[in-house]
Design brief:
- There is one protein chain.
- With 186 residues, the chain is of the alpha/beta class.
- The protein has a single domain, classed as Rossmann fold, CATH 3.40.50.
- The protein contains six helices and seven strands; from the N terminus they run αββαββαβαααββ.
- Strands 3-2-1-4-5-7-6 form a seven-stranded mixed sheet.
- The longest helix has 12 residues.
- The protein is globular and about 45 Å long.
- The protein starts with a helix and ends with a strand.
Amino acid sequence: MHREYGKRKLGIFGDLPPLIVELGPGSGSNFRYYPRGTRVIAVEPNPMMLKRMYKQADRHGVEIDLRHAGAEGMEVESESADLVVSTLVLCSVRDPVRVLAEVRRVLTPGGRFAFLEHVAAEPGTRLRKVQDAIFRPWHWLGEGCHLNRDTASTIENAGFSDLELDRFDGSGQMPYRPHISGFAIR
């Protein structure tokens, strides 16, 4: 993951504040990019991830403030964060429109939403047909992952004041090759 996404993550995260809200930090793979002493409000509803997440937090000197609620109803104070991070998470949330409204709510004016996500292939392409055909078993096996979710459009329509979005093909397996990365400003 670091080899695949590391440079992109550093580019979209920008200047890192001492407090970061991270949606679905999972096993803590982003903690290597945060300065020691960073406080991370970890919005992580999956209890199976916690042991690895805390291990990575200890390894990288990151302080965890765990919130068990899902991203659709973050238990985070309004206008309290300069940075919200989401990497490979928006595919599996129940309601991405609501999640992005929550992101906007918790960001300070001028705050940054940094994202890196796999997305649906273009409609009508062979890859999109594959994504649509395997959606149900993939969704079940992939803990709610929506291979064919148009996350780019959802972010574009979320009401951010500024958006920088880059589309790219990841080197991963075929069903989730199309990706987006970038940041949006509240």
